[in-house]
UniProtKB/TrEMBL annotation:
Top-rank lineage group of the source organism: Bacteria
Location of the Protein FecR C-terminal domain: 260-327
The name this protein goes by in its record: FecR family protein
Domain FecR protein: start-end pairs: 118-214
Listed GO MF terms: sigma factor antagonist activity
Membrane-traversing stretches: 91-110
Lineage: Bacteria, Pseudomonadati, Bacteroidota, Cytophagia, Cytophagales
Keywords (A to Z) from UniProt: Membrane, Transmembrane, Transmembrane helix
Length: 330
């Protein structure tokens, strides 16, 4: 780390008192990726020591109204006597509210970036992540995971998942709970275990390989809880109701970590959804009956083309691909 930039210089910068030379040094210092984590840590420390500068919505409102009033000649046609209507009567308040909303939104986005580290995978990409507490995460394709930058493993063990991921959670001496939150009205709470969470647009489900987890979920406005045991598969319907079933090989649901795809009498329509979610390739069927044909077996595929070829040869059907659009036909 460049010793020319230290905590005192950054604190001066956060307070708005840095000199032009110091600002230039900080800019150059931040070009090094390893310095950015230190920057966020010292920013968090500074915010905890000093009163934060939050958006003054009242001041913003008054300034906006004054500016609008000063420019009313440009906002109102001079040659025509306008007929009062709701929009004109409330224009000042709407404009001021928009200003306040934009300020608040900007502050929210900035704080979210500062306090959380985001992992994102593209179509066809799988990412291995080791969290600060020693827990392991495999993030499937087309997924995102958000983790607190500061205090993870001591103050909190919450992560936010969109898409699909497998977790191997490390047990802590103080029995601190590990929570996976989703935007599908459910969360998974554990101590130490291995499980797979699937929270995509069309479906949500959790599979427990070993250990014990508790699901907290919403059905309407009611909060419910469910304790899973190894081998349990819990699926959620569109209104949030949970269905539990015992499966013989829960590890098959996380086979994607090794680029393996396991099918057990799976309709091609469901396979098509899986291919789209993982590789971004949209599949259509020339005949609806074709979409109901099933496939079984375990197949290794690094990309969509490999999997499409396997399906074509196994079922003796044809496909035509144009960019990311595929049509199956007999």
């Amino acid at each position: 780390m460049d010793k020319s930039v230290n905590k005192n210089i950054l604190f001066e910068s956060f307070s708005g008192r840095a000199t032009p030379l110091q600002k230039k040094l900080i800019e150059q210092w931040l070009l090094e990726p390893q310095n950015r984590e230190q920057y966020y840590e010292w920013l968090d420390e500074w915010e905890n020591q000093f009163i934060q500068i939050l958006p003054n919505t009242e001041d913003a409102l008054q300034k906006s109204l004054q500016k609008i009033a000063q420019n009313e000649a440009y906002l109102t046609p001079i040659s025509v006597e306008p007929t009062p209507n709701f929009f004109q009567h409330n224009f000042r308040w709407l404009a001021a509210a928009a200003v306040v909303l934009l300020i608040s939104f900007g502050v929210f986005i900035a704080r979210d970036y500062i306090f959380y580290k985001r992992y994102q995978t593209a179509f066809g990409e799988i990412q291995k992540i080791q969290l600060p507490d020693g827990s392991q995460v495999s993030l499937n394709a087309n997924s995102a995971l958000k983790v607190a930058r500061f205090g993870f493993g001591t103050k909190t063990r919450e992560v936010f998942l969109t898409g699909e991921a497998s977790f191997s959670v490390k047990h802590t001496i103080d029995n601190q709970r590990f929570t996976v939150k989703t935007d599908k009205n459910f969360e998974v709470e554990v101590l130490g275990t291995e499980f797979n969470v699937y929270a995509r647009q069309k479906e949500a489900k959790v599979v427990l390989n070993k250990g014990k987890v508790q699901l907290n979920y919403l059905v309407g406005k009611a909060t419910k809880q469910l304790t899973m045991k190894p081998g349990d598969l819990v699926t959620f319907n569109p209104i949030g109701q949970a269905k539990v079933q015992q499966i013989a090989q829960p590890q098959n649901y996380s086979a994607w970590q090794e680029h393996r795809f396991v099918f057990e009498q799976t309709p091609l329509k469901e396979v098509a959804t899986m291919i789209y979610e993982n590789f971004g390739v949209k599949i259509e069927f020339r005949d609806e009956a074709l979409s109901q044909r099933t496939i079984s077996g375990t197949f290794h595929a690094e990309n969509a083309d490999e999997l499409l070829q396997v399906i074509s040869e196994l079922l003796e059907i044809n496909f035509n691909r144009q960019d990311n659009n595929v049509t199956f036909f007999e």
